[in-house]
Amino acid sequence: THHQHSVKTLQQLESRHTRLTHELRGLPEPDRAALSAAEAELEALIETLDQLREQADMAQQQLPALEAQRQYLRTQLEEITRRQHQMEGRLAGLNQIQAHLDADTKLDGWLNQHALTSLPRLWQHIEVETGWETALEAVLRERINALAESGSNISGVINDIPPSRVSFYDPAAIPTASAHGFLPLLLDKVRWKTGQGGALADWIGEVYVAESAAAALTLREQLPANACLVCPEGHVFTRHTVSFHAEQSAVQGVLARQKEIERLAEATEESALQKETLAEQLAQSEDALRHAQQSLSTLRNQLNQAQQRQHQLQMDTMRAQQALERVTQRSAQITAELSEVEAQMEQERTAQQAASERLHEHKTQADFVREHLDDARRARSDAENLLNQKRDLQRSSERKLQEIRFTLQSCDSKINDLNNAMKVSSENKERLNAQLAQLNIEQIQIDESDQQATLQQAIAERQTQEHALAARRNELESANTQLRTLEEARMRLEQGLTPLRNRMEELRLNAQESRLVEAQCTEQLEALQADEAALLAGLEKGAKVSGLNAEITRLSSAIEALGAVNLAALEELQHAQERETYLAAQGADLDQAIATLESAIQKIDGETRELLKSTFDTVNQSMSELFTTLFGGGQAQLILTGDELLDAGVQVFAQPPGKKNSSIHLLSGGEKALTALSLIFALFKLTPAPFCLLDEVDAPLDDSNTERYARLVKQMSEHVQFLFITHNRITMEAANQLIGVTMQESGVSRTVTVDLELATSLAAA
Prior knowledge:
Elements: H1 2-26, H2 32-99, H3 105-113, E1 126-128, H4 133-140, E2 147-148, H5 151-154, E3 168-169, E4 190-192, H6 198-204, E5 207-209, H7 213-219, E6 228-230, E7 236-237, E8 242-243, H8 254-445, H9 448-528, H10 532-540, H11 545-562, H12 569-631, E9 635-641, E10 649-655, H13 669-686, E11 691-695, H14 703-716, E12 721-725, H15 729-734, E13 737-745, E14 748-755, H16 756-764
Parallel strand pairs: 2-3, 5-6, 11-12
Antiparallel strand pairs: 1-4, 6-7, 7-8, 9-10, 13-14
Helix pairs in contact: 1-8, 2-8, 12-13, 12-14
């Protein structure tokens, strides 16, 4: 063994020496020129990064002003748009009121009959001084809505009196000159847009105006005969009468509305012009903001690319330096290992020579020992054979002795059984003889009439007991129903109790954790000799214990991390701040992307919930209908077992007609099969598949349920092709084509196909 180990060790050392020699020759020569070029490029890239950061900062500073300008213009545009919509709505409402003044179905029909509907109205041709609209309407009343028409056209309708009061006027009539009295006339407050105003002079030529009702009441005694006085409120005064004004129809206020309409139209036009101007300014502002954002994004991309290139160059430089160090170190290691291997090889050669000499001596001794070993092995083999023969003989004797003992014990047991059987037979014989004698005596003494009465009484009592039993069964059924109801209530309560228990356990754990944290904090305060009053004041101001612990940990780590004084710390701090600014911008972009993704996820979840809910309701309705069809009654539905729709499970509730089971597990095999079919067919009704394979579904069904199943498959086959495996004759009759497998020869199978429609036509023929 020592000799083989020496040979093997020497081979391994030679192999290791060869491998180290090849590795030393194959070490790469470091490229020092490429390393110098990478360091020069890195310095130039740092200068470029500084310029790009300055440009990005300037672009970032311009963005808030552009954002504020765009927001201001957008707010102004929204305000003007809102006011414009309000004015347009107000204008549309007033125009609608003006268009439906004094709507009269009968009068409208009369006007349509005589083609007078399109005639202009009086209030459309006049303009009243501000403040006197009500006075003019109070005097003219319904004549303010008079139709402009010449006398020649009126002669055509003079014989057909209108069904309601209506007035006509001639817009071309010239007013007659009237002498002005001591007061101004109402006619002076009116200006005609088109026409001469002769008709209006006829109606209000003798109407004077007063500045107030009190003044009119004082001046009415000075009025000429057949004249009247009107105030701005619309009250009409004559020398002996007073008529107070009040709105009586939609015609009232038509002049004020017309002024409001004209004012709103002008304001709407001005608002539209302002809206166009602001829209142009907003578009320019958005273009400027978009251009600034694009420039900032471009600068950030360039900065990012430059930083990536800087990082890549730093990594390349570091890798080149590390490779140079590794080559130098590895070369020294290989040289040392080669020296060590050569020394070990010399030692192993010496050990191998000594082991060879000892091996020759040991082989001579082994030959001598091997000759005596063969004789000892033969003697041992003879002794083992003799021992095995003795052991076999002993086992055979023990087995025979055990068989004899077992036979003797069986015989004793059979003798005892026979003696006991004979004793029992004798006792039974004596007992039966005594019973036979007693029965003979009773037969002689029996009175058949008494037995008949007893029999009738027993029958009546049996009927009574059966009625009582039926009543008890009904009570038992009611009790079972109540028990099931209570059991369902108990299960619901237990389901609601589980979250409460979990919450209570969670609160208990939180309380225990709080106590442990409190004890730890107390120990820390005592160990640090902290000022508890100052800490309490800080906590009252809003500080949190977790925040203080984090601050303590941060300060401790910062103190430990300071170590020795670093003279380049300020420069490193500046680079770190720049890196932080860049990472903050990247973080903002990531936050925006996260918000977008969360919004998309919420939208997808909402659409998924709506789609799942509609699909669930459709499948539930279809399953209920198919269950009723398959069972000829009963009810079935799907119940969600959870508050969250996307995580909830689905429980099948099915009650065939005549059953009040509380769980689907209480149904028979056939009922479970039909319930499953109703659910599967409901899914096929929602999204029909090209084909459906049913493997011996009708096996647990009886004939009536099989017929319902076959009819449903026939009905569903209009949209889905069904392939079913069955041994039931009723199901086979519903198929359009049969394919069977037969074995006419042993080990040889073949299919037999039957087209039922073709077979039926051949049979009919």
